[in-house]
Every structure is written in structure tokens, then in C-alpha cells.
Specification:
Number of strands: 0
Structural class: mainly alpha
Shape: elongated
Low-confidence stretches: none
Length: about 100
């Protein structure tokens, strides 16, 4: 399937298209999540939450850029959100 066909299928809530989209991009996106996470379980949570957002927002994909880049942006934003929520804020104070 082409990216356009995958997007149209996902907008229509077609489970086959959703599965194909996940299978096509999940390995690369997992690599991104692993860069942000301390543990592989945390990276898996980031990936899962990121793809949930991808499927919720897929109708907003305009097709002007690459689908992979659009998904990557969502995954990175989800990883950063996860870090902000779960990591204590570290302050560097020089006295």
C-alpha cells in the first residue's frame, strides 16, 4: 500500500491499514523512543502512546510532507511529554 492508501484506510478506521501503518513505521519509531527512554519498557509505552495519537490525528495529515516525518514528530513530542511528566526536574544552581 502507498502512504496515501494507508492514510485513507486509517481515516476510515480500517484495521488492516492501521496494522500495516504500524508495521511499516514501528521499528524506526521505536529507535527514536529508545533514545529518549531510560528503559525499553518506557520506550514501548512512548511508542504505544505515540501511535494512539497518530491514529487519533491521522485525518489531520495533509500530505504536504512525508508521512514518516509527520509520525516522527508525533512520536518525539510524545516522548518529550513522557519525560516531562515522569522525570523530576533537575536544577543546576551554582553558588
Amino acid at each position: 500500500m502507498t502512504d496515501d492508501e494507508l492514510v485513507r484506510g486509517c481515516v476510515a478506521n480500517n484495521p488492516t491499514a492501521q496494522k500495516l501503518l504500524f508495521e511499516q513505521f514501528s521499528r524506526k519509531m521505536m529507535g527514536i523512543c529508545l533514545r529518549y527512554a531510560d528503559r525499553s519498557e518506557e520506550a514501548e509505552d512512548m511508542l504505544q502512546n505515540g501511535f494512539i495519537k497518530v491514529f487519533e490525528k491521522i485525518e489531520t495529515f495533509k500530505g504536504t510532507g512525508s508521512l514518516e516525518g509527520w509520525i516522527r514528530k508525533i512520536i518525539v513530542n510524545e516522548a518529550l511529554t513522557n519525560i516531562r511528566k515522569n522525570k523530576p526536574m533537575k536544577m543546576n544552581v551554582d553558588i
